[in-house]
Amino acid sequence: MTSDTTPLNLPTHEGPAGSSEITSAEGLQAILDNLDALVYVADFDTYELLYMNAYGRQIWGTIKGRKCWAVLQNGNGPCEFCSNQLLINDDGSPAGPHVWEFQNQLDKRWYQCRDQAIRWTDGRLVRLEIATDITERKEMELELQRAHEKARQAALTDELTGLHNRRAFFSFGRQLLSQAHRYKTPLALITMDLDFFKQVNDTHGHEAGDEVLRHISGLLRERIRESDCAARMGGEEFALLLPEADTARATDMAERLLQMIRESRVHYRGHQIQPSASFGLTVATGSDQHLEDLMVRADRALYRSKERGRGQVSVTIAETPPSGQ
């Protein structure tokens, strides 16, 4: 034991043969110093370190007269995550142990900590912590979480365009419709279909068609808000959900998108491709119980744009049910 460490003043117990058992302070200290984990004791009120085993001293050095937050975190005051308040009852008496995990901001290692308030040899209240390094295990857990999140995002993302896919659109869309009903706010749906897209594929090839789809997706991302939901529904079909957008605002959005598409050009292997699109839109009403109700109306408006010559915006307004229904 180094000279800066307070001895553990535990009584020696005599065994049957008269020899001292390992319950002596020296024996207990030998056990603690050989643990592959940090063990330390800090005064509950002053945060002064009263004891640290060899594992801790090898990493954090001398503790004499120093505070736990200064040694373990290189801080200038008690840690925001200090568990002291969790270790005592309302009357100030020691409670049960508290087990938790955290990443030390000084050495960036992950630890599982077992904290408990106990009475020290002089009667004062102290915090006893046993911290085991779990960095390797934690890094594997975090990597697995990242892999799961990446897989979840991939399941909700259209691989070609980076927009939401059809599955994600209906998942998020149902939430947005529910919120619109709950807070009585408008919700607009715009459906969009690229005109003469088959002709692009037949003339320039499917790679050119893919380039057009990526180009259109980029235009959509430029115009939508963070709260909006834009998705590629399949093929050359797209859809946008606009929370808190009424008919006028949604129509303005669709017309701006139409103008942007008309004025844009897709350059592919020396060719200029001029895309075109038709739009249909509607706004949710209180009687819309399902997102599919909006989709039917928006698609009806989209077909009307196609029938009228393409490259335009059409609107379908939900019929108001008769009084009393």
UniProtKB/TrEMBL annotation:
GO terms for biological process: cell adhesion involved in single-species biofilm formation; negative regulation of bacterial-type flagellum-dependent cell motility. Residues 185-318 form the GGDEF domain. It holds the Pfam family GGDEF. Its cofactor is Mg(2+). Residues 1-20 are annotated as: Disordered. PANTHER family: DIGUANYLATE CYCLASE DGCM-RELATED (PTHR45138:SF9), REGULATORY COMPONENTS OF SENSORY TRANSDUCTION SYSTEM (PTHR45138). This is diguanylate cyclase.
